Amino acid sequence: MITFIGLSHLSICYAASVLHYGQKVLILDTKHEINLYKEKKFKIFEPNLEKILKKYSKNFKVSYQFDDAKKSDIIFLAKDIKTDKNNNVLLKETKSLLRKIKSYDKKILVIMNQVPVGFTRKIKWNKSLLFHFVETLIFGDAINRAIKPERIILGKKHINHKVPNRLLNFFNLYNCEIIQMTYEESELTKGFINTYLASQLITTNFLSEIAQTYQSNWNRIINAVSMDKRIGNDGYYKPGLGISGGNIERDIQTLNKITIKNKINNKLPEFYIKSNNYSRNWVNKIILEQKIKNKKISILGATYKENTLSTKNGTQIDLLNKYKSNIMMHDFKSENLIDLKNHLGMTINYKSLEHNLQKSNIVIIFHNINLYKKIKFYKYKNIKCLIDPYSVADIKNIKNIKHYKLIK
Length: 408
Hints:
The protein is 37% helix and 14% strand. It has 408 residues and is α/β, with parallel strands linked by helices. It has three domains: 181 residues, NAD(P)-binding Rossmann-like Domain (Rossmann fold), CATH 3.40.50; 90 residues, N-(1-d-carboxylethyl)-l-norvaline Dehydrogenase, domain 2 (Orthogonal Bundle); 123 residues, Rossmann fold (3-Layer(aba) Sandwich), CATH 3.40.50.
């Protein structure tokens, strides 16, 4: 049996991958968290997740009895790390879960959650049995990436330390390269991966804006650019509204703190943060330009992207902060979005799509889904402005409405 400590998106997605490979899985957390799961109040949306959990239900168990951990030789600490409003890592919950399993220090413990550099080595555990694992999940594609990782990155106490066969045998189920390194190298690798991704996202937004000033076709340009083998064609080349979701932002903020702590004068993390904030303000800038009295704004898509329930750092949150009661929301997953129902101390009323379209004069499309692609906006004379960053709306359904896109 493989035991995961902490019930979260991270643990349950990797649990699904372990079930897929024929292993038994136990997830442990506090009584409160486990009861939320059993009462179906623990909400995570990932394609194929429910299908796998149902198929292998006989091999899957959740419990708040931490004594059950003694049944397992391999324990993963795998609860997503929380962050504050400035994306600083909060470790209180992680440390609390570690205390609950301290008596099992003769078992293999793998730190899977997103800890800062130096954390793993400070854990009071038999270092010969302590490891750090780099996860690279993506919301909306987490199950696929958990089952078929590009590689497995494993941090250990020193580079010459031999990894126990039972842990290697488990990871060999994933049929990919296993890259071994020190704890610190592994922890840095996690942050560095997200830093490279951030650089792509920020560079794409910057260059696409320049292309627009010359009325140039971004898709033609990036098609030529990405064919250069030094750059590649699998990167983030679609302009967006800055970085959302929390994971990349967390690692950029951690990197910024590292540069300050070590008196490194390179200001790259600060530049990333400022440039990202510039992109995040694109929608608000357009709203402010509209000479519309009594602005009524309809947001179509509440989560930071489709195929997830996460609203972390979404542009939608920024707009709720700025416009409060002038915002109307629609999301086909709204009944599961508990965290936005009472945001900022006010009730967010999710209305029908028709209600949103009839009562708003500014509409913003955040989700690229068929439901929004089919809307005949010309039918609604009240709509004066359509903000459509990802070009979701069908152009033939837009007449006499100001239409704003990231790529023209």
